[in-house]
Amino acid sequence: MPVGANRGDRDRPCDNGRVSDPSSDDDSPKEACGVFGVYAPGQPVAHLTYLGLYALQHRGQESAGMAVSDGTDVMVVKDMGLVSHVFDERTLAPLTGDLAIGHTRYSTTGSSTWRNAQPVYRGVGDTQFALGHNGNLVNTAELAEEAGMLPGTVASDSDLVAELVAHELEREHAAHLEAHGTTAAPDGAEAPAFGPSLDAAVAHVLPRLQGAFSLVFMDEHRVIGVRDPNGFRPLCLGRLESGGWVLASESPALDVVGAHFVREVDPGEMVILDESGVHTVRPFPPERLDPKLCVFEFVYFARPDTRLYGRSVHHARVRQGELLAEQAPVAADMVMGVPESGLPAAEGYARASGIPYGQGLVKNRYIGRTFIAPSQELRAQGVRMKLNPLRENLVGKRVVVVDDSVVRGTTQKQLVKMLREAGVTEVHLRLTSPPIRWSCFYGIDTGRRSELIAHNMTVDEIRAFLDVDSIAFITLDRLIASTGASGAGFCDACFTGEYPVPVPVSLSKGVLEGTDRAPSCGEPHPPTSEPVAEGDLFTAGSATDG
């Protein structure tokens, strides 16, 4: 059995528990987290969870962990690093049981330390439980204050949810003792056993939470999946051929463990998996149900083989490229995509425009987001560590470069410089998302609003800064249309500033740790009353623009 795994967490590693900062060139929005849960008596649930987490690795690379129950104890193993670094046959072999949950993390509330790795574990009386969380609460500080928690009691919003559920279990325990007493019955029979209900405690806590949360819980006997009433983050349900049920952030995690996709968990739904099958609880009032899936899942976060709202993510990305070609045509010799999410859109742009599609970049698949460089000079070469141009395909050509987004602009600036050095004569940048002008508070780390290039510059100023000959951002209506689910409901706050759930001005990543700083001016801020015109999303430089 792993050290310290029985009834709680594995021993903390001897270092300070912090993961290295991603290299400064990493300009993409930082991923949400990935969650997985399986109820499958008689099957190797730890190995199934390992495979599921591997399929969800793209959603978080800072830490990984799982909790497994054999019906008596809940054992948790977690550590900093990738799934393949945290788990091997030696760590998986002792994790036997009938049910498990797993988690891959990128931090949004709470710093990147071992303490904040998940699943989070709690023990209350005879009940043990663990949870994994994908998303970000917006009322974290308010909930901690209402619960009378001292600073430092909890370090992340996920830790806070676990503490609230533990308090509710304690309340149930106290009520049980008050109703039944603590002494034996007069005839010598035992008093009724304490049996607080995890599902009842979770259902009681959930309506108090605000923001984005796709959650998986487990105790000794059941797995619970929850999706917030807006459905900001995905969660789906699958069934194993050999019997048993699976919950996962994305459908490919079902495929890899041999589970058939059953359906997406509804916004506001709580699903309970136990020995009697699947049960649904609706803990939220109807007025809070308002589907708002993050549209960026279709642009960047989700795997291309994922299905969301019943639609193929890959097909949506191809369609984004086709719509961009209609919106912003240009004379060029080749269309190329920036790996990975830009590739399907580049195929679509080439198909719709008639411009040949070609490969212009080779990606080093073995460079992770935690690439460590000893100096700023070497960190500045981060793009070259990850991408290298195919000079023979590029020299002397006018190239359309299709990418998913521009956040700070640092990655694209280095990329354009690299392409020009490879002999490209013209660079026309096409983006499959509108300009990101607002920070996300629902589980995606876009950075502060003051760091967003589209907040600080006009589209033409961005074009000049990146040194491209033309630039075009897809319009929001075209992006929504590309999903094939226009009426299903999407969150587009990072483009429009229209936040579906109100966000407190003081919210920041370190809100529970005392490390938060004052937000930049206007963050968050009421949405602008003037819509962005389509002409503002496309600009080309004159012949004299260097």
Helix share bin:
25-40%
| Record field, number of beta strands | 24
Rounded Rg: 24 Å
* Average predicted local confidence, pLDDT: 84
Number of helices: 18
Please give a structural write-up.
With 546 residues, the chain is of the alpha+beta class. The protein is 26% helix and 22% strand. It has 18 helices and 24 strands. Helix 9 crosses helix 10. It starts with 33 loop residues before the first strand and ends in a 6-residue tail after the last strand.
SSE topology sketch:
Layout: E1 34-39, H1 45-55, E2 63-69, E3 74-80, H2 83-86, H3 89-92, E4 99-105, E5 120-124, E6 127-137, H4 140-146, H5 157-180, H6 198-205, E7 211-218, E8 223-227, E9 236-240, E10 245-248, H7 252-256, E11 259-264, E12 270-274, E13 277-281, E14 293-294, H8 296-301, E15 307-308, E16 311-312, H9 313-327, E17 334-337, H10 342-353, E18 361-363, H11 376-379, H12 382-386, E19 387-389, H13 391-394, E20 398-403, H14 410-421, E21 426-431, H15 453-456, H16 459-466, E22 470-473, H17 476-482, E23 490-491, H18 493-496, E24 538-540
Parallel strand pairs: 14-23, 17-20, 20-21, 21-22
Antiparallel strand pairs: 1-4, 1-10, 2-3, 2-4, 5-6, 6-7, 7-8, 8-12, 9-10, 9-11, 12-13, 15-16, 18-19, 22-24
Helix pairs in contact: 5-6, 9-10
